[in-house]
Recover the amino acids of this structure.
């Protein structure tokens, strides 16, 4: 694997590709989804600033978020994925790894731009383009990932992402690749978060979980109706249905308004947010810590990796 990320041991990171890449990215590299998953060897995420994003000549720079993902295949295919807005839309610039001008630089061809709207029943679309990408070693500090291409009508496709200098969060799938057939579509593991589709959910929902300790966990649910719901599990709780719960939550020490707390079952409480503007997703992604307080009980959840986990959760929805 020629990627500049290959000299680091990959850890838990986004597996968005297990759901959508098999149906879109594989169009030009492998004949079946199963074969493509068997070729997926690793993924890496980097935080920073999406400086420019253009697709089919349309400028989406203002809606491009501050996280980029690279997927790496043993076939030599790689892809850079960014999220657009906060509704689960993702865009991927895909091609084949090329030359290394020096030890800290990497070139990549660009032959497809893939768009997944994150809407149940709407498959990803792939546009053939001609162009290239270039990037450098992220372990040497801030660097720029740049992709430029044009489609058959001459419309431009551009991606320019400046990293903040932090090390990439990475996943090694090389060992798992040989057993990829046992991986179910939509399942993912990201920085301590694990998630999967909920069977028979009519809204195409997915649930991801992060353990606080052996008895306590935070569970986040999202679905095709744009729900983003926080739930807390405690093995020792034994709430009765309809019980009144007085509690509050804090993101990074700041109290966040909630409409109430609902008993989902004896061991699970669901936090009720307000409308979209008072939703949980924005503070969830932007914060490093969530604190739930209920009387004398306090639960503290490390939200590290929450932004990448939220991207994976929305990518899981509808799988």
């Amino acid at each position: 694997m020629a990627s500049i990320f290959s000299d680091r041991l990959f850890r838990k990171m986004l597996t968005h590709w297990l759901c959508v890449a098999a149906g879109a990215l594989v169009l030009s590299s492998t004949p079946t989804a199963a074969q493509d998953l068997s070729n997926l060897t690793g993924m890496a995420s980097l935080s920073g600033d999406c400086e420019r994003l253009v697709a089919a000549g349309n400028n989406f720079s203002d809606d491009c978020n501050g996280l980029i993902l690279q997927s790496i295949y043993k076939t030599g295919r790689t892809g850079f994925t960014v999220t657009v807005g906060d509704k689960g839309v993702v865009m991927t610039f895909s091609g084949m790894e090329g030359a290394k001008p020096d030890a800290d630089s990497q070139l990549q061809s660009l032959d497809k731009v893939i768009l997944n709207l994150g809407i149940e029943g709407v498959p990803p679309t792939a546009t053939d383009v001609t162009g290239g990408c270039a990037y450098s070693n992220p372990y040497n500090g801030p660097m720029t990932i740049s992709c430029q291409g044009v489609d058959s009508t001459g419309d431009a496709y551009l991606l320019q992402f400046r990293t903040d200098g932090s090390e990439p969060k990475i996943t090694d799938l090389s060992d798992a690749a040989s057993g990829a057939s046992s991986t179910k579509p939509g399942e993912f593991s990201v920085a301590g978060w694990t998630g999967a589709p909920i069977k028979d959910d009519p809204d195409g929902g997915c649930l991801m979980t992060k353990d606080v300790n052996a008895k306590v966990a935070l569970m986040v649910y999202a679905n095709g109706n744009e729900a983003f719901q926080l739930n807390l599990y405690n093995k020792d709780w034994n709430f009765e249905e309809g019980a009144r719960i007085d509690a509050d939550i804090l993101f990074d020490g700041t109290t966040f308004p909630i409409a109430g707390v609902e008993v989902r079952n004896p061991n699970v409480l669901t936090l009720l947010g307000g409308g979209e503007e008072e939703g949980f997703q924005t503070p969830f992604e932007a914060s490093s810590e969530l604190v739930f307080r209920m009387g004398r009980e306090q639960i503290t959840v490390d939200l590290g990796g929450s932004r990448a986990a939220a991207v994976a959760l929305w990518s899981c929805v509808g799988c």
Observations:
- The radius of gyration is 20 Å.
